[in-house]
Amino acid sequence: GTVLVFLDSHCEVNEMWLQPLLTPIREDRRTVVCPVIDIISADTLTYSSSPVVRGGFNWGLHFKWDLVPLSELEGPEGATAPIKSPTMAGGLFAMDREYFNELGQYDSGMDIWGGENLEISFRIWMCGGRLLIIPCSRVGHIFRKRRPYGSPGGQDTMAHNSLRLAHVW
What we know:
The chain is an alpha+beta fold. Helix content is 22%, strand content 30%.
């Protein structure tokens, strides 16, 4: 297909979740879109709605969620308008296949897990794209309490990837 959709294996989609993601990409192929990520309990599998948030990061180059200011939700489209986001969580997004290839796909210098979401977010913005959260698209995600796997030799892949991100950009 012309659009790639990335979803972690531990996600549950809702009805009509895909259509709102495809529209902004059709309007501008350099738009990368993310659904609102709802929470599925790792213990009980209970599904809970999340507030509308956008991605951010701290000085340690770790991803974090930031609340969207109310002033940005009060436009003509109200709470259904796409929200510009500096970064994305990384495991749930859609983008034009050719644009993904033009950007260089994922950075092959990243190891296993951590930081790849910030790296591709920075690349999207710095290479003429835009990153949006689409409130009309909601996908549930199981958030684990800890990382479920290790890395070769016990390496801190998050630190490695964050350092790579800083050096590359």
